[in-house]
Write a structure and sequence with these properties.
The structure holds two protein chains of two kinds. Helix content of chain A is 0%, strand content 55%. By secondary structure, chain A is mainly β. Chain A is globular, with a radius of gyration of 13 Å. By secondary structure, chain B is an all-beta fold. In chain B, a hairpin with a 2-residue loop joins strand 6 (54-58) and strand 7. The mean pLDDT of chain B is 92. Classes of the chains: A mainly beta, B mainly beta. At the A-B interface, strand 4, strand 5 and strand 10 of A face strand 4, strand 5, strand 9 and strand 10 of B.
């Protein structure tokens, strides 16, 4: 069973469109994240949810809106896509309250905006 | 100052040699440290975690932590071509909630 799964794996779209990426984890973790990895491979945190509550919101344009319907799901909706949004987006989860709890990553969604 | 820094590389070592990867961090109160390996086109996968000063060994991998120097390293003994990947240092920041910050990664190439 896949622990953290995200869909779609690839997403190609035009500027100005709106798109969503879905993420689900079956690890029973309390905390879920969205990370963005740019062309230089730098992995930057965007958002974090703990039990459906937004707890980390890094400096991300408000065109990006995360939604967590329950603690096993964290979706990312992006409005008015721009060329600079092209990147790989990783969903991850971890167990809150455990110091050494690592992040478990999904397989990533490669977003290409043309 | 960036929160987590690594030598970007690329680092090239011959097969069988020891590869040494270094990482420094700025938040002195950070408690947990992780090394992830990322192959091209794949997601990061955890190699080691460490939270106490000193060395932690797991097979061919040894993580070293020195909180006073705000320094963490990863040694890979008997390097294999399959170890060729980007290695990401990650630090769990001292906040109310878990926030894991990644370094820029070091690209390692093991030459047969």
């Amino acid at each position: 069973d896949t622990a953290v799964s995200q869909t779609p794996k690839y997403l190609v779209t035009q500027m100005g469109n709106d798109k969503s990426i879905k993420c689900e984890q079956n690890l029973g973790h309390d905390t879920m994240y969205w990370y963005k990895q740019d062309s230089k491979k730098f992995l930057k945190i965007m958002f974090s949810y703990n039990n459906k509550e937004l707890i980390i919101n890094e400096t991300v344009p408000n065109r990006f809106s995360p939604k967590s319907p329950d603690k096993a799901h964290l979706n990312l909706h992006i409005n008015s896509l721009e060329l600079g949004d092209s990147a790989v987006y990783f969903c991850a989860s971890s167990q809150d309250g455990v110091d050494n709890s690592p992040l478990h990553f999904g397989n990533g969604t490669r977003l290409t905006v043309t | 100052q960036k929160e987590v820094e690594q030598n970007s590389g690329p680092l090239s070592v011959p097969e069988g040699a020891i590869a040494s990867l270094n990482c420094t961090y700025s938040d002195r109160g950070s408690q947990s440290f992780f090394w992830y390996r990322q192959y091209s086109g794949k997601s990061p996968e955890l190699i080691m975690s460490i939270y106490s000063n000193g060395d932690k060994e797991d097979g061919r991998f040894t993580a070293q932590l020195n909180k006073a120097s705000q320094y963490v390293s990863l040694l890979i003994r008997d390097s294999q071509p399959s170890d060729s990947a980007t290695y990401l240092c990650a630090v769990k920041a001292r906040t109310s909630y878990d926030k894991v910050i990644f370094g820029p990664g070091t690209s390692l190439s093991v030459i047969p």
